[in-house]
């Protein structure tokens, strides 16, 4: 008799089916095979005591500081843990409780109903001379040649932009941005490349976004995160998806001492606000894509925290995009010029996929396609 450890909670149903368990048993037992952890910040002491008792009664647990029982403070941080089944029961129970537990229950409920999306690769084409990675800079015909190459290498989406957003970069006028992009957009339409991949316009200029959407682009990639509602209206009118990215400040100021009270919660609050704004325009959550904005107004520590908690942002029900391709955070961990940061890029992107991201924005399509295929083969392989 031998034993080995299983460390694939996403494959729990597959494991039980391989054992030829009863169908109803698969549904019940799979919910017992995964423990979820949630940090709750600044919880009123009354709520902590009620939640502690209710969690214990269901077989779950709430870890709290020793002072909670004696109410020595008014608010505490805590860690809630339990299986999806236990926490589902807890959600229903807390909806009738005071001290803000009803609101907490609704937030917890959003984490228990996540959806999975097929992984997609987004190739990057920059029609400018100052993007931080020289290998992504193209003009007119060379841009179209690069697009064809990315499609052949397996890109699902091509993200085309005419203005650099690297730290310290300066904005350009709409006329100049259009001058850079119109020839590329027109060639994409003329060569019917929309039949081979989806195209995203990386811009926050209404005139540029409108031109791209009029000519077949179907995604708006907005680094300002819907600061200008006109962009959302354009996306809605053309049936386009919308990427809401978080950025603290502007490209000119974003890396000047970025600060957060708690980067995960602050970015979460930003997404909640912008999703509400998008929904008022008429965009559904299936049309909204979230990007935490690695390197956009974040220190290395902020970036690592966001990557570690990438799965957190799936609770909105939107797809999550990761874009850390060759960025300076890799250099800060292991010094290397931008041309030598592909290994670090792959490490970040594969780990982000494992933690819930489904769209990978990158410069190296071929290498990402191979890495993702190997990663998925491991995840989908037999367990027994």
Automatic annotation (TrEMBL):
It catalyses: (7,8-dihydropterin-6-yl)methyl diphosphate + 4-aminobenzoate = 7,8-dihydropteroate + diphosphate. PROSITE patterns: DHPS_2 (PS00793), PTERIN_BINDING (PS50972). Keywords: Folate biosynthesis, Magnesium, Metal-binding, Transferase. Its EC number is 2.5.1.15. Pfam families: Pterin_bind (PF00809). It comes from the Bacteria. Pathway: Cofactor biosynthesis; tetrahydrofolate biosynthesis; 7,8-dihydrofolate from 2-amino-4-hydroxy-6-hydroxymethyl-7,8-dihydropteridine diphosphate and 4-aminobenzoate: step 1/2. InterPro entries: DHP_synth-like, DHP_synth_dom, Dihydropteroate_synth-like_sf, Dihydropteroate_synthase_prd, Pterin-binding_dom. CDD domains: DHPS. Its cofactor is Mg(2+). The keyword Transferase applies. The keyword Aminoacyl-tRNA synthetase does not apply. Residues 119-373 form the Pterin-binding domain. SUPFAM superfamilies: Dihydropteroate synthetase-like. This is dihydropteroate synthase.
């Amino acid at each position: 008799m031998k034993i080995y450890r299983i460390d694939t909670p996403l494959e729990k149903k597959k494991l039980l089916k391989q054992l030829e368990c009863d169908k109803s048993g698969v549904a019940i037992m799979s919910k017992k095979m995964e423990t979820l952890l949630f940090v709750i910040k600044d919880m009123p002491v009354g709520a902590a005591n009620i939640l502690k008792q209710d969690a214990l009664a269901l077989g779950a647990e709430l870890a709290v500081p020793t002072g909670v029982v004696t109410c020595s403070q008014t608010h505490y941080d805590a860690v809630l843990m339990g299986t999806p089944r236990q926490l589902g029961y807890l959600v229903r129970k807390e909806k009738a409780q005071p001290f803000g537990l009803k609101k907490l229950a609704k937030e917890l409920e959003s984490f228990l109903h996540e959806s999975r999306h097929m992984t997609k690769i987004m190739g990057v084409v920059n029609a400018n001379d100052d993007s931080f990675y020289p290998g992504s800079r193209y003009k007119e015909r060379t841009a179209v040649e690069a697009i064809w190459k990315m499609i052949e290498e397996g890109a699902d989406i091509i993200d085309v932009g005419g203005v650099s957003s690297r730290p310290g970069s300066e904005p350009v006028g709409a006329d100049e941005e259009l001058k850079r992009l119109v020839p590329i957009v027109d060639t994409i339409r003329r060569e019917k490349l929309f039949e081979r991949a989806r195209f995203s316009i990386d811009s926050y200029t209404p005139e540029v976004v409108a031109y791209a959407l009029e000519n077949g682009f179907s995604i708006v990639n907005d680094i300002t995160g819907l600061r200008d509602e006109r962009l959302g209206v354009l996306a809605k009118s053309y049936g386009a998806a919308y990427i809401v990215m978080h950025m603290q400040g502007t490209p000119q100021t974003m890396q000047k001492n970025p600060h957060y009270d708690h980067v995960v919660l602050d970015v979460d609050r930003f997404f909640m606000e912008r999703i509400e704004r998008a929904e008022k325009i008429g965009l559904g959550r299936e049309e909204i894509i979230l990007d935490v904005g690695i390197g956009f107004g974040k220190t290395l520590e902020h970036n690592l925290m966001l990557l570690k908690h990438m799965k957190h942002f799936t609770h909105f029900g939107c797809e999550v995009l990761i874009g850390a391709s060759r960025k300076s955070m890799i250099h800060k961990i292991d010094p290397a010029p931008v041309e030598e940061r592909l290994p670090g890029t792959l490490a970040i992107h594969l780990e982000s996929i494992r933690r819930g991201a489904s769209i990978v924005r990158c410069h190296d399509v071929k290498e990402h396609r191979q890495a993702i295929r190997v990663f998925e083969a491991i995840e989908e392989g037999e367990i027994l």
